[in-house]
Amino acid sequence: MNPAYFDHYCLLVESIYTLSMDSVSLDDIEKCGNLLKQYCFMFQVLYGEKHMSANLHLLLHLATCVTNHGPLWVYSCFKFEDHNGQLLKWFHGAKNPELQIRSKLQMIINMPRILSKFRVTSSKNVQVQDYMKHISHSYSLPNGVEISKNVHVLGSIKLVSPTLSVMNNICTELGYIPSKCFMFFRLSLYGSVIHSKEYSSSIKRNSYTVFYHVQSNRLVGQIESYVKCCACDLGKDCDYNCKAQYLARISRLPYQQASVLHDSVSDARLSHLVVVSNTLSREHFVPISQIESLGVYMDFSDVPHVSYISDTPDLVEYD
């Protein structure tokens, strides 16, 4: 891309990202307002007056909207648009779709009351319960096993026998020798599902690159797998109340001393993007409590040796 067009696009990226954060300061709002003014001013120069639409003009009001009503995600319509995909599954055919949606909604609302009337006293009742749960599927992710507030283990876990070198790394992190080690591959962290690279099911994109911290250092890495380490001897019968420790096996992505953008005129920096090497460093084990958030991983064929990782601006919106 021509550098002039790239720098121009970055003005929009930085301003929208900043205005979508969980917390936006008055200084940030003022800076984003100036970035958007420059973006709109340069738009006519780069693309021509005929492309100056009403939507472009509305960008000039975003800073005021955030001042008056809060970050952009508070009144974003993307989440409502996402629910349209769920509504499409609630009707079949073009005849009276509104009645079909109403019937499906009534069924979902009343299903818990109906299920409560079935006692699990026979295999037939169990089959009825399973069928009702299936047809009233709410499209939400399973909670899994809660290991701390807003953190859940998803899917099954399996007993593993770590190699000597892996066990040494685990012991170094824990400070003791665990009696049993179990592996799992998915984690729900504050509503975001973080996979591991060893998760076998196909996924649409890289969802195992994370930001995490070790002491006071904020690092970036890719999760290879998750491990539950038990201090007791109960194994799979462990009720999760014993001294079990949950670790992530992470390959770190070393930072590169490079910046994506620094526009001296607008002071745009794209500071939410970090540049990392594609060469993974040595694996290490990190407590799951030290994982901060899922990162958005980007690599480009014309830049083969580095990748770009972006923070997510907030924990509410998702794609």
From TrEMBL:
It comes from the Eukaryota. PANTHER family: F5/8 TYPE C DOMAIN-CONTAINING PROTEIN-RELATED (PTHR46579), F5_8 TYPE C DOMAIN-CONTAINING PROTEIN (PTHR46579:SF1). This is DUF4218 domain-containing protein. It comes from Holothuria leucospilota. The lineage of its organism: Eukaryota, Metazoa, Echinodermata, Eleutherozoa, Echinozoa.
